[in-house]
Amino acid sequence: MRISPDIALIGLGANLGDGAATIRAALAELEALPACQLLLASGLYRSAPVDAQGPDYWNAVAALRCGLAPGQLLEHLQRIELEHGRLRPTAVRNAPRTLDLDLLLFGSRRVQTAQLTLPHPRMHLRAFVLAPLAEIWPDWALPDGEPVHEAVKRLQAAGQILQRAGPLAVAPR
Predict the structure, then answer these.
(1) Under a CB-based contact definition with an 8 Å cutoff, are residues 62 and 38 in contact?
(2) Bigger pLDDT: 149 or 54?
(3) Of 6, 56, 79, 102, which one is the catalytic site residue?
(4) Is 24 a catalytic residue?
(5) What pTM value is reported for the model?
(6) Has 100 been annotated as catalytic?
(7) Cis, peptide link before residue 70, omega less than 30° from 0
């Protein structure tokens, strides 16, 4: 399944503070972005950190129809993260965070800059991204052609454990 050129997929994650509440608030803020419309949002998932230490993460994925350029959308995502107290320590890779908003895809665009890589270079390695994505787009395939639901099975078989915790309270417009 091809993704429309104006559809952006956003991964949401948080593992400091009330992560579930932060994800809900961030989803509402995504819905309010200029020139964007929230189309779909997965349920809320809970997962252990991957390649990191710290408390479990709360995760979700949202699909937006977006009239912004990828760099503009990234600026909005990083502003929302900062408003939720996101720190970016340079000495600690994958540090725990109050909010993480990852731009996973933007249509079929390929971008490689110092600030942004599209498609997200590690999304195919993360069950906490792919399981929520499979919930909202079960027939979608990763850029390499692997069906997203098969990728989730592959990652879970490799030991990545996550659990669907329930729906998100914010309804798309």
Answers:
(1) yes
(2) 149
(3) 102
(4) no
(5) 0.89
(6) yes
(7) no
